[in-house]
Design brief:
Elements lengths: L2 H11 L3 H20 L6 E5 L15 E6 L2 H13 L5 E6 L12 E7 L8 H11 E12 L6 H9 L3 H4 L7 H8 L2 E8 L5 E7 L6
Parallel strand pairs: 1-2, 1-4, 2-3, 4-5
Antiparallel strand pairs: 5-7, 6-7
Length: 209
């Protein structure tokens, strides 16, 4: 799966994303924002902001920047910011998560919701989050990771070769991601419906170990 696969998939789903994925992903989205935005007056980056469903949940004293590769999704995010008068949202930018234009140590916290299994290179994606997050800052990831056993494991293996068509890696290993990302994880907990997704709370250690 490459970047164009991701852009094509989100162009396809941009019109229905809020209705199909909004309620299902809401608990993880809200928990992640609460963890990332725990302190006042933070500079926060949301990688893969999509249609901006998380933006209303940030503290009003924060300054939030959202990035995404999908112009269609970003248009909806900007409309949400305007319609809900979200003054804490500093910028909504079209940008590749693996090639961010921000300087090093730009943000107090970085979060990525349902993005890790979508990007072409998870290692590069994680490295960029670590780079733009200040030392000791918080990085929060919520994502689907492959199950170890059971029926869903079979389904994930069947879907794995179709990543370019469905827009994400169904067979996305948590262990492999932790190894290549070099993130310092402080907590892993189940998230969303049936706990099928997981939330990773990380501390940004520099240099990465």
């Amino acid at each position: 799966m490459d970047l164009q696969d991701t852009i094509r998939t989100y162009r396809l789903f941009s019109g229905s994303y809020d209705y199909v994925f909004g309620p299902v992903f809401h608990p993880g989205r809200k928990d992640a924002v609460q963890i990332a935005n725990a302190r006042p007056a933070q500079q926060i980056l949301e990688v893969g902001v999509g249609t901006g469903l998380s933006l209303p949940y940030f503290r009003p004293d924060s300054e939030v920047t959202g990035i995404d590769v999908s112009a269609e999704m970003l248009a909806k995010a900007r409309n949400r910011v305007e319609n809900k008068n979200l003054k804490h949202v500093k910028a909504i930018l079209e940008m590749d998560a693996e090639k961010m234009s921000f300087p090093d140590n730009s943000f107090d916290a970085v979060l990525a919701l349902y993005v890790a299994s979508v990007v072409p290179d998870p290692a590069r994606f994680a490295a960029e989050m670590r780079r733009v997050c200040r030392p000791g800052g918080t990085i929060v990831i919520v994502n689907h990771f492959a199950t170890e056993t059971g029926f869903m494991r079979i389904v994930e293996r069947v879907l794995a070769p179709l990543a370019g068509f469905i827009g994400f890696h169904a067979d996305f290993s948590l262990d492999n991601f932790l190894e290549v990302s070099k993130l310092t994880v402080r907590e892993i907990k189940p998230s969303n419906l049936f706990g099928y997704w997981r939330l990773l709370r990380c501390i940004n250690e520099k240099p990465a170990v």
